[in-house]
Amino acid sequence: MGIRWMGQALSSPFFPVCHKMAAKGDVCGSEVFSVQRLMIEGGTPLRGEIPVHGAKNSALPLLAAAVLCQGETVLHGCPQLSDVAAACRILTELGCRVRREGHSIFVDASSVSNPWVPDDLMREMRSSVVFLGSVAARLGEASLCFPGGCELGARPIDLHLFGLRALGMEIEERDRHIYARTGGRLTGARIRLRFPSVGATENILLAATLAQGETILENAAMEPEIVDLAGFLTACGARIRGAGTDTIVVEGVDRLHGCEYTVMPDRIEAATWLCGCAAAGGEILALGARADCLQSLLPLLERMGCRIRVMPEGVLLAAPARLAGCGQVVTSPYPGFPTDMQAVLMAAAATAEGESRFTETIFENRFRHVAQLEKMGARIQVDGMEARVEGVPLLHGAEVEATDLRGGAALAVAALGALGVTQITQLRHIDRGYESLERDFSAVGAKIVRI
Q1: In Å, how far are 36, 164, 240, 332, 392 from 186, measured between CA atoms?
Q2: Which pTM was predicted?
Q3: pLDDT band for position 19 (50/70/90)?
Q4: Which of the following CATH numbers is that of domain 36-53+266-450: 3.40.50.10490, 1.10.132.30, 3.65.10.10, 3.40.50.300?
Q5: Residue 18 annotated in active site
Q6: For residue 68, which of 177, 206, 358, 393 sits 20 to 30 Å off, Cα-Cα?
Q7: Which candidate in 69, 88, 150, 326 is catalytic?
């Protein structure tokens, strides 16, 4: 007899295995984890409140910044993600004492002494390269391999190395590894980036806080996460002005102390919740979402027919009976439309009446999710860095695979509004950026489980 879930027959040969293991009370090991999947039955409007957790893209550089501090740092609002866990393991390898209590992480960097970051941890996430600036500035040297993460295309770290070398850091690249030495204290400099790279801005900012003299960083990234990092460093005793503009000035200090700090809410997660409701229908309040960090998304959702209300507690979205096309969307550095929001908005636009066009200017492989959306009936034509979405009345359930973090979230968004059951595999990508996507969507009425 086949197994049925929410009225649908489940034909996957893996589901009975998990069902038997759960019945025996067994814990799935790494082999079973590799074939976990999300099962989503679409067609249920979402209603209620859904929390926005701390931002992954802010928590990771803040944890790297803790290396610079003498004493203990307490970071509140840290999401429970695989990337954050990897960052904590890196801190431990460096000699820090690290513990987590719920969503708070305690880091005591008093005894940090090891400048070598293990290769396996570096390869787990792209943003691990941000440890280069903080470790070298604190210990006078650092060694790490080139970072890993989602395969979104070429993401060179040349701007990171360019900025750090300008501060006086000696860097050698050999056998896919980076070896850095400061030869003493770094020296402030005037640095102009040819592109406003978020990661390079973070790395330069971290190293410059302990450099001697003044650093002026021009064409700096202006993302809210940069402002959050500068806020944390300032609370630790750094002297920084201009964060959030294209010119940041850092007056180096001799040392930093620990502090208590709360990570900003995740604007990409907030966008996922809002696009999920737009696709499924209904009305949700994204608790903790900051409208000022969503200024490029909210007008597009209103153009699609959603009613948006900004409240002290967050952002309220009410979806129309059917979405309209969102028109032309071009990704660009902040305050432009974020590349990380492109996939989830495209998933919502897949069933909109009319046409939507997306131009990707940041990563050449940002359309890898398109083939998976097409399995669900989406009509999308990709031509180089442009995708034209011709909305269909309804998507249908299918077996699909998360190709990267944001592409996996996009599949969940599409599945919420699709007819039938969708199975999403390769969940390790989603788990890098969402604490428990199924738990949070379930809280507002979605029929979604992980098996």
Answers
A1: 47, 9, 16, 32, 57
A2: 0.90
A3: very low
A4: 3.65.10.10
A5: no
A6: 177
A7: 150
